[in-house]
Write a structure and sequence with these properties.
Layout (H helix, E strand, L loop, with lengths): L1 H21 L1 E10 L10 E4 L4 E4 L5 E7 L1 E8 L6 E7 L3 E2 L2 E3 L7 H4 L16 E4 L1 H5 L10 H5 L5 E2 L9 E2 L7 E5 L2 E2 L4 E2 L4 E2 L6 E7 L13 E7 L8 E6 L3 E11 L3 E10 L15 E16 L2 E16 L3 E19 L2 E18 L4 E21 L2 E21 L9 E2 L3 E15 L4 E15 L4 E3 L6 E4 L4 E4 L4 E3 L6 E17 L4 E12 L1 E4 L10 E4 L7 E14 L4 E18 L15 E17 L4 E15 L16 E2 L6 E10 L4 E10 L3 E2 L4 E5 L2 E5 L7 E2 L3 E10 L10 E9 L9 E6 L6 E6 L5 E9 L1
Parallel strand pairs: 1-7, 1-8, 12-17
Antiparallel strand pairs: 1-4, 2-3, 2-5, 5-6, 9-16, 10-11, 12-13, 14-15, 16-17, 18-19, 18-53, 19-20, 20-21, 21-22, 22-23, 23-24, 24-25, 25-26, 26-27, 26-28, 28-29, 29-34, 30-33, 31-32, 34-35, 35-38, 36-37, 38-39, 39-40, 40-41, 41-42, 41-43, 43-44, 44-49, 45-48, 46-47, 49-50, 50-53, 51-52
Pfam families: CarbopepD_reg_2, Plug
Keywords: Cell outer membrane, Membrane, Signal, Transmembrane, Transmembrane beta strand, Transport
Main location: membrane
Length: about 800
Amino acid sequence: MKKHTFISLLITFIIPFSIFAQEKFTLSGTVSEQSSNETLIGVNIIFPEIGKGVVTNEYGFYSITLPQGVYKLQISYLGFRDITQEIDLSEDKKMNFQLIEASEMLDEVVITEKAEKLNIKTPQMSLNKLTAGTIKQIPVVLGEADVIKSIVLLPGVTSGGEGASGFNVRGGAADQNLILLDEAIIFNSSHLFGFFSVFNPDAIKDIKLYKGGIPAKYGGRVSSVLDIYQKEGNSKKFRMSGGLGAVSSRLLAEGPLKKNRGAFLVGGRASYAHLFLPIVDDGNDNVAYFYDLNTKLNYKLNENNNLFLSGYFGRDVFAISESFENTYGNTVLNLRWNHLFSDKLFSNLSLIYSDYFYGLELDFVGFEWDSGIRNFNIKYDLNHYLSDNFKLNYGINNIYYRFNPGEIRPNSEDSGINREKLIDKYANEFGAYIDAEHKISNNLTLQYGLRLSNFIRLGQDELNIYENDNPLLFNEELQIYESAEPIGTETFSRSDQIETFTNLEPRVALAYAFNDNTSVKASYNRMAQYLHLLSNTNSPTPLDVWTPSGKYIKPQLLNQYALGYFKSIHDGEYSLETEVFYKDIENRIDYIDGADLIANNAIEQDILNGKARAYGLEFLLRKNEGKFKGWLAYTLSKSEQRTPGRTALEPGINNNEWYNTPFDKTHDISFNGSYELNQKWKFGANFVFQTGQPTNYPSGQFEYQGLVVPVFDGSRNSERLPAYHRIDVSATLTPRKNKTRKWQGEWVFSIYNLYNRRNAASINFTRNEDTFRNEAIRTSIFGIIPAVTYNFKF
């Protein structure tokens, strides 16, 4: 009887479940651009009658499982023509779709802001998307389209000012941003010390900036993730495009390796900035230029396997006469294999090499200096589409680092400089994650995940040993910090583990949609950062050195909370995003007064571990459709740091009080707009206003042996530079005859800093040699700059 009852239960529950499972089928495939076979990221595949849908991943793949039935299918990627058709889903189907451009204009203009429209119901928040087309329409300095200069127009993102490299997100430092190019880590994102970014917009396919709500697949930084993918190349026909600008020219070629099966892309860019930016009056012997190369190959082995090989190489050269030369740049290489296990399981395996090099040669001193950081990364990511309401992303990655803090060599036999090598450092960073996208109901959607990170500081040739493991002493009599003398050194083999850190990093985000046009979202992030940029300047420079966490340096740990309100207005013509955020960071490195970071083999003698916090309100109003498009962004925020003493007798930094970080900008307002007058003329403008950057002014001075020495006795960063603001404008001319010929071109006329505002990059205090009175001198980088750029394709 019991056996019969058990069998009845099986029949009652298992058989109906099996029948139900059999009644569901999977539709999967890829979505690409018809003219080139280039896969498209973030395409919407929607079944409007049942309110279900999915978007393509980073490789254009999609998968959705639905009950058996006949459905109306809509595919949309704004800037391209929609596809609407009826699907009889009575079995598993694989369907690839190709979208046609909605215009015959230049590709860079076709892919418009519409791809960045708000998705109300997804839990992903604190995310901004930009396309190459949007970036190319934003007026920037010297007419050069620029990724970094474009994202600083978004809420929560600022720069250190003109001529400053990197960018700051929600009050974080530039080294707290994870910058990825085709999944490879970029350690320095700037050309010419911050005037331009290393990303060639001709070669860029998709850009995402995560400021919060960061998925578990990303790790290693505590402020943001800038994820950039390059184009794959045209597998149908050979094409070329490029441009001639005021300070640089670029050329990109793409075409089939085998028609409809494989493609290549090669893009080059070089500047001749030294012709327009003389450093001194007789600057004929001075140079300041950069060049870079983007490459990508892809090949479709069969329906389930694709191979990609992508790379980037860039260099900057800055020299003054024959006495000084500085060379630096990035090299990355990535081999990727896409494999489709089934119509529900997509995988990507990547083997990545990344190298950042910095070289300096001083002939008048007689030495050469090299430093850098190199890493090897293997990562494996899987997208598992379990049902129409549940998707899993999971994977692992492992990064091996070699840090070269610096090596000095004589560059001639009579230089008098002895060869010296700072001790190389080694580390290994491992991460494993699982991330779920879960639609609970038509109104509530969750994204939750967990990342496990493990960091091992590996053995090195020498490591200082200090009494009581204390490399920094406090002199109570003088009330200053002093370096401790090592009591010995310890030597390790490369496989030894000097220090090990393990952290769990939970991530959760949710979206509650009141209707199709309005939602609220919330997110929480826990993240760990094991690398630190040693810099006591306001923005990174090539001379700054990365160092790993270890015996004396702890990893940075972040907690970030965000809450937002999102609304689509007039059927998506306008969109509104508002967010409040709060984040705190443990173990943020701080530097004692008088810290010397250059060529320092014992950096632990100059730093203390502190904490940082930032909080604020972000507002973004977009106009997505019509002849006029653009956005208005405003951020109200605070960014502070505090480094308490290690004992009750120590004052720490700034007397144990919170002080402004160099990235604290109370008010940040930006506007970007473009107006399409007709098919021939398009106009653009942007306005930027930022509260002045925190700085330090001397409170007094004294004279010693004829030298005037300034005295700084106030709080750190208690003063500010004057407010920063400017207006830029542009006009794009597309000749009508482009429609009838293969060669297509456009002229871009731009004016940077229209009203010639002399924004202060710094203010220095000195004595006037004529009046012998002290005076403040404002240093400005740019005034008004007109520029002309010609873009073409054929």
